[in-house]
Amino acid sequence: MARRKLTKSERRSLSDFDLLASFSGEEEGRVLRPFGGKALNELRIYWEHRARPAQLPPAGDWRTWLVLAGRGFGKTRLGAEWVRGIAEQDGRARIALIGASLHEARAVMVEGESGILSVAPPWMRPVWRPFLRQLHWPNGASATLFGAADAETLRGPQHSHVWADEIAKWQRGMEAWDNAMMGLRLGSLPRALATTTPRPVPLVRRLVDQAGTVVTRGRTVDNRALPKAFIEAMLRDYGGTRLGRQELDGELLMDLDGALWTRDLIEGCRLRTVPAALAKGDAPLLGRVVIGVDPPAGSDGDACGIVVAGLGADGCAYVIDDASVERSTPEQWARAVAHACHRWGGDRVVAEANNGGAMVASVLRAAEVDMPVRLVHASRGKSARAEPVAALYERGRVHHVGLFARLEDEMCGLLAGGGYAGPGRSPDRADALVWALTDLMLKSRGVPKLRVT
């Protein structure tokens, strides 16, 4: 069977060894021939060839390397190889190995399948003294284990390097980290590596924004060595969920103080499909479908928010699509609106017209949007318009059918009382959602206040 040709992006993400495995026999011979017969063995042995680019230390003058990646990415192997490289190159290295507990530090970081003892070559294998919690290399380098749960044990010891594993689950994270950093003062360039599946705990949030930190991100699927059946099961069971974004894609999903929506609130409203029980005879699952549109002010700035929602026979609203487009001309975003209308059988388009109502109407007509178009003018701020819609979520009146990552990120950036702290300059997708749900669920109550043209 012919091998699929890899894209340039896929090639850049592979290790030298995996890239070689993607070659044909003829290509492999041509690449290895100049290096002699030992080339393939070296590719198998040396970490700089086995590692994917994201698993190698970043360049530059950094103090903390923070690796936020999904489960199975290879964080433990990355950390063990980083420690191994330091210890083998510097006999004066004094390394702190910090796990959530002493048990986890020993079981995962030292004795684990991808731990330090596993990756060490026979000629440079450290002596492991578990009762002293120490590793000693033949050249004099040493490492000592600590548990973050006993943060006081990190007060006093000095180190040249620190590997801190799964910091997002440390019970006394801030205290343990601060004690470790105050002891990170040996050698000419003391450095720390923190590896973790991301969670928005205070320590992780602080490190992401801290000067001197370099962040590497990665996904579970980046590790081509994982069994195909495992990847398929994870994507089937957790793809399209908040847990999947965090645990598989390695995304740091943060809740902001005062946000109108939280991640848990949205996750509690998520469904995989519209409930079939809503259908009555030949009636459609959703009796009425509205497309909310937040047009951009220009073609080179914000996105055009296009969100589709429908009303079920149970009186609940179902968000079924985020068809938003970015950096588009008026003709392009109008065509996207028309496509969403035809795809979902829309009954009405509700479009904000603050930035030129006549233009919005004419552009939609030119795109053959063959259904009623309702132009609305906002008389209140974005957060004020969104508050009654957020209340619908709290009452369980709105459901998301699937995952809409970028829309949900914007929703979680809208703050009560005004303000936006989400991605991008403006919550265009969230605004389109608000217009659609207001028309479906709140229009008859007059909330929010609209001037209709």
Mind explaining what this structure looks like?
There is one protein chain. This protein has 453 residues and is α/β, with parallel strands linked by helices. The chain has helices at residues 8-13, 16-21, 25-32, 39-45, 47-50, 75-89, 102-110, 116-119, 173-182, 202-209, 228-238, 242-247, 263-268, 330-344, 357-366, 382-394, 405-411, 428-442; strands at 64-69, 94-99, 127-129, 134-136, 142-147, 161-165, 191-196, 213-218, 270-271, 286-294, 305-312, 317-322, 348-352, 373-378, 398-401, 450-452. Helix 9 links the parallel strand 6 (161-165) and strand 7. Helix 16 (382-394) crosses helix 18. It starts with 7 loop residues before the first helix and ends with a strand. 40% of the residues are buried.
Structure characteristics:
453 residues, alpha/beta, eight-stranded mixed sheet, 19% strand, disordered C terminus
What is this entry, summarized?
The protein has 453 residues and is α/β, with parallel strands linked by helices.
Topology:
Blueprint: H1 8-13, H2 16-21, H3 25-32, H4 39-45, H5 47-50, E1 64-69, H6 75-89, E2 94-99, H7 102-110, H8 116-119, E3 127-129, E4 134-136, E5 142-147, E6 161-165, H9 173-182, E7 191-196, H10 202-209, E8 213-218, H11 228-238, H12 242-247, H13 263-268, E9 270-271, E10 286-294, E11 305-312, E12 317-322, H14 330-344, E13 348-352, H15 357-366, E14 373-378, H16 382-394, E15 398-401, H17 405-411, H18 428-442, E16 450-452
Parallel strand pairs: 1-7, 1-8, 2-5, 2-6, 6-7, 9-15, 10-13, 12-15, 13-14
Antiparallel strand pairs: 3-4, 4-5, 10-11, 11-12, 14-16
Helix pairs in contact: 14-15, 16-18, 17-18
